[in-house]
UniProtKB/TrEMBL annotation:
The record marks F19 as: Participates in the substrate recognition with KAPA and in a stacking interaction with the adenine ring of SAM. Keywords: Aminotransferase, Biotin biosynthesis, Cytoplasm, Pyridoxal phosphate, S-adenosyl-L-methionine, Transferase. The keyword Phosphoprotein does not apply. The keyword Nucleotidyltransferase does not apply. Pathway: Cofactor biosynthesis; biotin biosynthesis; 7,8-diaminononanoate from 8-amino-7-oxononanoate (SAM route): step 1/1. The modification N6-(pyridoxal phosphate)lysine is found at K282. It is found in: Cytoplasm. InterPro entries: Aminotrans_3 (IPR005814), Aminotrans_3_PPA_site (IPR049704), BioA (IPR005815), PyrdxlP-dep_Trfase (IPR015424), PyrdxlP-dep_Trfase_major (IPR015421), PyrdxlP-dep_Trfase_small (IPR015422). It comes from Alkalihalobacterium chitinilyticum. This is Adenosylmethionine-8-amino-7-oxononanoate aminotransferase. PROSITE patterns: AA_TRANSFER_CLASS_3. Pyridoxal 5'-phosphate binds at G115, A116, D253, H318, S319. Substrate binds at Y148, K282, G317, R412.
Length: 452
């Protein structure tokens, strides 16, 4: 057995992969050995374009010299010391930088290790905030249908993508789930009406239940894992206004949308929204190391400040929180945003791909193409006219991405939505190549499935 096959056999024997049916993995194993720029290479030497930024987080491509060097430099000082009751230099410097680049009202940084944990922290903070202020009836959360905030028990309790959550229902706490203004699947053609109805539904809920609602949690400007559903203009702003009016905290989850993904550093900038809490992760280290953070306003922070005996302390913190190597990577990453003018280039690239993606509309089973910045979902449907989906068991999104893999590009689907989220540094030429592969893969897959 050659070395590559040996790795494959070992991976089948011992590993259990996240969000993966291992029977699928066994049929189509993949082991990445190296990366360079927007390419990943597997153990057999096959190269793939990284069409999903290694799960929505890579920014500058793989093996970016500046980030590599920053990690090596930090390694020569120290790799890790705890943040429980102490801090370190990179974590302190990064906190200052994060406060500079996030909305003005956010002044405090609570670190963690993953997007889901940043969400758990936001939920616990919002809950305890009201308790600390003496309003302990405010314990519930409001979320949008099809919203996604991670896979831990708190995060799934405020999530609403049925396929991920149904199994765990008995474990979850109840949240209010309000309608989302979906542009593709709605009863009216006028999205402005749909948006206003959704905002009215929220206002009615708030008017009736504000005494028991701690916070509203929502992704920034686009629902990611729920199918890449872009929010209509004014929707997030409308929610911010309602939260203020009814004394409810606003948590914006920028885990997927932060760090330039939507064409702004943070998606809340599209509408000048200032959340009380904001979760960030993924792109924070350029896609290198597991750092996340929950940003809060000073108002939230102050509610936790006092004598230890008052039990206002925030009881949360994991072993690796504020890891120096991760923070050093994040600092180098943020420097690159300035040096390489990433945000402006994302806007140009977004315009470029919007035009190129139009050619996918020709395909018989492309129902909708949704995009904000470099965050794209292509929804495949059985019937374009009626928007009838393919039968669930057909797994058309899964097979389309497997075909993409054959053709030299990696991604993961969201049901029948093919995801396209390349690293922000992908060149125009590489973007075009990726779109060509996607088109070819969708065409071949849907032709086979649609044949009676
Ligand atoms: N929130 C959002 C909006 C996400 O898209 C995700 C992951 N895709 C998460 C939270 C969870 O992040 P992580 O995988 O780092 O836990």
């Amino acid at each position: 057995m050659n070395e590559a096959n040996n790795w494959v056999e070992k991976s089948k024997k011992h590993l259990w992969l996240p969000f993966t049916q291992m029977k699928d993995y066994e049929e189509n194993p993949l082991i990445i050995a190296e990366g360079e720029g927007v390419y990943l290479t597997d153990v057999h030497g096959k190269k793939y374009l990284d069409g999903y930024s290694s799960l929505w987080l890579n920014v500058h491509g793989h093996r970016k010299r500046e980030i590599d060097e920053a990690i090596i430099e930090q390694l020569q000082k120290i790799s890790h010391s705890t943040l429980l009751g102490a801090t370190n230099i990179p974590a302190t410097e990064l906190a200052e930088k994060l406060v500079e680049i996030t909305p003005e009202n956010l002044t405090r940084v609570f670190y963690s290790d993953s997007g889901a944990e940043a969400v758990e922290i936001a939920l616990k903070l919002a809950f305890q905030y009201w308790r600390n202020l003496g309003h302990s009836s405010k314990q519930k959360f409001v979320t949008t249908k099809n919203g996604y905030h991670g896979d831990t028990v708190g995060a799934i309790s405020v999530g609403a993508v049925d396929i991920f959550h149904t199994v765990y229902h008995p474990l979850m706490f109840d949240s209010y789930k309000v309608s989302f203004p979906n542009a593709y699947r709605n009863e009216h053609s006028d999205l402005e009406d749909v948006k206003n109805e959704c905002l009215l539904e929220i206002e009615q809920l708030f008017a009736e239940k504000h005494e028991e609602i701690a916070a509203f949690i929502i992704e920034g400007m686009i629902q990611g894992a729920g199918g890449m559903n872009v929010m209509p203009d004014g929707y997030l702003k409308g929610i911010e206004q309602l939260c203020k009016k009814y004394n409810i905290l606003l948590i914006v989850d920028e885990v997927a949308t932060g760090f330039g993904r939507t064409g702004k550093m943070f998606s809340v900038e599209h509408e000048n929204v200032q959340p009380d809490l904001m979760t960030i992760a993924k792109g924070i280290t350029g896609g290198y190391l597991p750092i996340a953070a929950t940003m809060t306003s000073e108002k939230v922070y102050e509610a936790f400040y006092g004598d230890y005996t008052e039990l206002k302390t925030f009881f949360h913190g994991h072993s690796y929180t504020g890891n120096q190597l991760g923070c050093a990577a994040a600092l180098a990453n943020l420097e690159l945003y300035k040096k390489e003018d990433i945000i402006n280039t994302v806007q140009n690239k977004a315009d470029f791909i919007a035009e190129k993606l139009q050619s996918l509309q020709e395909l018989e089973h492309v129902g909708d193409i949704r995009q904000l910045g470099l965050m794209v979902g292509v929804e495949l449907v059985k019937d374009k006219e009626t928007k009838e989906p393919f039968p669930w068991g057909d797994r058309v999104g899964y097979y389309a991405t497997l075909k993409m893999r054959d053709l030299g590009m990696l991604s993961r689907p969201l049901g029948d939505v093919v995801v396209f989220m390349p690293p922000l540094a992908t060149t125009f030429e590489e973007l075009e190549q990726m779109i060509t592969i996607m088109k070819q893969a969708i065409k071949e897959t849907t032709e086979v499935l649609a044949t009676p």
